[in-house]
Write a structure and sequence with these properties.
The chain is an alpha+beta fold. The protein has helices at 25-31, 60-63, 100-106, 109-126, 200-212, 260-269, 280-291, and strands at 36-40, 46-48, 58-59, 72-77, 80-86, 96-98, 138-141, 146-149, 155-156, 161-169, 173-178, 190-193, 216-227, 232-241, 254-259.
Length: 296
């Protein structure tokens, strides 16, 4: 069975995260001067001294003479170490900014993956400054990958919100939905977040029923994509249902079945839009069409 090549963003293996170095302050200090630094502002953008299209990352010594505790060790690419720094700790913020969606579409895959890692990690840090158990201030340790409360000794770790995203088929058609806020004629596969105590397959079944009124018989894992907007992991599935009517729930404006050729012709004519190639959503649609012998 033909499959579409995986072309969505943040697939690069990324850095070797070298977890063992996170608690080795001496090794991190030695790596700091020649390390590459990605600066993230409060809006989640990467900041540069020069035009961001040039992608000139500063060395650690250009930012701080010595490594501050506020920096986060991301890992290494070969011998090259990478750190992330929150913009609030830099007195003179570089003037040029680039957002993560733009970087995902235009940067080399490794650098885009590093940006995604840094943005998600620093987002967690910004929103976890106080202990959820006792309310006292937290201190970042282990290279920024743990926040510790010195008062009650509680340890806090980065969290990722897990969501399922699924291409539902009845054997001949694919189920797509659209939200009222989307551009006209934009459609996508369905998606939703896990709830406590659910398996991934249970979430697929529940979300499809809630959003489109369709009963799914089974679901098979397909692929995953980090989605740091701001801190999610999209878990892609192929889901299978018997032919039945689709009826949009409260979250969707419309839910509708489409044939593969209907999708191809609608996209080609501009009368139907789907997600950009940045997203696993697009790949799930393309992959289903490829399995049906249609290229879009």
């Amino acid at each position: 069975m033909a499959q579409a090549p995986r072309q969505f963003a943040f697939q690069h293996p990324g850095l070797d995260r070298n977890e063992h170095l996170r608690e080795d302050a001496q090794a991190l200090d030695l790596a700091w001067p020649q390390s590459k630094i990605i600066i993230i502002d409060l809006q989640g953008n990467a900041r540069f001294q020069t035009d961001a299209a040039e992608m000139v990352f500063s060395n650690g010594s250009e930012i701080f003479a010595e490594r501050p505790d506020s920096t986060s060790f991301l890992g290494q690419a070969g011998e090259q170490s990478w750190f992330a720094v929150r913009a609030e700790f830099i007195a003179k913020l570089p003037p040029h900014a680039v957002d993560l969606r733009t970087a995902a579409a235009t940067w080399p895959h490794l650098e885009a993956s590093i940006f995604a890692q840094a943005r998600a990690l620093l987002y967690w840090q910004e929103r976890n400054r106080f202990c959820g158990a006792c309310g006292n201030a937290l201190s970042l340790v282990r290279g920024g990958f743990m926040a510790k409360c010195e008062t009650c000794a509680c340890e806090h770790y980065p969290r990722t919100d897990s969501a399922v995203i699924m291409a539902v088929t009845d054997g001949e058609r694919i189920l797509l939905g659209r939200q009222a806020s989307w551009p006209e004629n934009r459609w996508s596969v369905l998606a939703g977040f896990l709830e406590p105590g659910e398996s991934l397959e249970q979430t697929v079944i529940r979300e499809v029923l809630e959003e489109a009124g369709v009963h799914v018989d089974r679901a098979e894992y397909a692929a995953s994509q980090p989605w740091p907007f701001p801190a999610s992991l999209m878990l892609g599935f192929h889901a299978y249902a018997a032919p039945q009517e689709a009826k949009a729930g409260d979250e969707l404006e419309q839910a509708q079945w489409f044939g593969a050729e209907e999708l191809r012709d609608g996209i080609a004519s501009g009368k139907l839009g789907i997600s950009p190639r940045l997203s696993i959503s697009r790949w799930l649609i393309e992959d289903w069409c490829a399995r049906m012998g249609v290229s879009i």
